[in-house]
UniProtKB/TrEMBL annotation:
PROSITE patterns, A to Z: ABC_TRANSPORTER_1 (PS00211), ABC_TRANSPORTER_2 (PS50893)
Protein name (record): ABC transporter ATP-binding protein
Molecular function in Gene Ontology: ATP binding
Biased composition annotated in UniProt, kind: Polar residues: 299-308
SMART domains: AAA
Domain ABC transporter: 4-231
Subcellular location, record wording: Cell membrane
Biased amino acid composition, Basic residues: 320-332
A Pfam family the protein falls into: ABC_tran
Keywords, comma-separated and alphabetical: Antibiotic resistance, ATP-binding, Nucleotide-binding, Transport
Lineage: Bacteria, Bacillati, Actinomycetota, Actinomycetes, Kitasatosporales
Regions crossing the membrane: none
Region feature (Disordered): 299-332
Keyword rRNA-binding in record: no
Length: 332
């Protein structure tokens, strides 16, 4: 079943078309990552799905409901979880009290202790929220996103500010949630995070989806040429090599190969016959980041050179300020 279906989504702020006909689908049980440069339209799209913003056109279904409709919106608040930036929480409550209090907002919450363990905050359960580090606070945000046992969880840049170990821990938590049946839609600026977590990705730039697929196939990545690099052996000229290469850069020459196994065989046989090792030899497929940068570089430049647009022109203003409000609260 499809958890999120977006067709021809449009959103304008004044004259500025922030989202210009976006289509994508998130299947139930998958981790879906929405990627894109600053100002691409990710937050706007997510906020429309979360019911914080009204769209100007197109159709949106979240768990089969319309988040722009009042009654559907109320139903959705009990069935989705949100992990946003800067969630407002009581600074003088403890971690445990905060999670337990939020559990009370939902009809069938998860067990508070289970959630404390899930996000790795057992040692800090008695600590006041104001005394948590940035990364620990983000874990608490995650705990508050999952305490309602949502069918669908929205994660907005879930690991920004985490140390490398904490990021791995958070990825494990997200995978475990997916494996337990939660559908997850996230935004991230970290391509390694999208690679590690996402079953599907879509890249949005300039308000449009410019590519979608799996992390391994996005933008034809799986069929892209492999890049072989090595240092030109001392005493050898480029013309001596058994394969065509492009010029030395940082002391390395580069060959591109559709069939790297055969090309490497020719190259390494040549080197072994001459008795010269190939120093600094590497073989690489383009990374997700390489593909992403290729897809978005022109948009990133456009965005940087376009005039800045004042926020707050939306008919439902101050949504950013409202991002800290859990939907569950407003129905109580
Ligand atoms: P980032 O990665 O920087 O968070 P994003 O992809 O989430 O960016 P959005 O926040 O959706 O981008 O913004 C898309 C465009 O709409 C940008 O050009 C932004 O300036 C503009 N915009 C967003 N919110 C408003 C608003 N309330 N009023 C006016 N313009 C807005």
């Amino acid at each position: 079943m499809t958890a999120v279906a977006v067709d021809g989504l449009l959103k304008k702020y004044g004259d500025h078309e922030a989202v210009r006909g976006v289509d994508f689908a998130v299947e139930e049980g998958e981790i879906f990552a929405l990627l894109g440069p600053n100002g691409a339209g990710k937050t706007t799209t997510m906020e429309i799905l979360e019911g914080f913003r009204q769209r100007d056109g197109g159709s949106v279904r979240v768990l089969g409901r319309d988040p722009g409709d009042k009654a559907d919106g109320r139903w959705l608040r009990g069935h989705i979880g949100l992990v946003l930036q800067d969630i407002a929480v009581e600074p003088y409550l403890s971690v445990r009290e905060t999670i337990a209090r939020n559990a009370g907002y939902y009809p069938a919450p998860r067990d508070t202790d289970e959630v404390i363990d899930l996000v790795g905050l057992r040692e800090k359960e008695g600590a006041k929220v104001k005394d948590l580090s940035g990364g620990q606070k983000r874990r608490l945000d995650l705990a508050l996103g999952v305490i309602g046992d949502p069918r669908l969880l929205f994660l907005d840049e879930p690991t920004t500010g985490f140390d490398p170990g904490a990021r791995r821990g958070a990825w494990e938590v997200v995978r475990n949630l997916r494996d337990a049946g939660t559908t997850i839609m996230l935004t991230t600026h970290y391509m390694d995070e999208a690679q590690a977590l996402a079953d599907s990705v879509a890249v949005i730039a300039g308000g449009r989806i410019v590519a979608s697929g799996t992390p391994d196939t996005l933008g034809g990545r799986d069929s892209a040429l492999a890049r072989i690099r090595f240092a030109l052996p001392a005493g050898a000229a480029i013309g001596d090599l058994p394969i065509p290469v492009s010029d030395a850069e940082e002391g390395l020459v580069t060959a591109e190969a559709e069939e790297p196994t055969a090309v490497l065989h020719r190259l390494t046989s040549w080197a072994l016959e001459r008795g010269t090792p190939l120093e600094r030899l590497t073989v690489e497929q383009p990374t997700l980041e390489d593909v992403y940068l290729g897809l978005t570089s022109s948009y990133a430049q456009q965005d940087a050179s376009s005039p800045s647009i004042e926020r707050g022109q939306d008919p439902a203003p101050a949504v950013r300020g409202r991002r800290g409000r859990r939907p569950g609260r407003s129905s109580r």
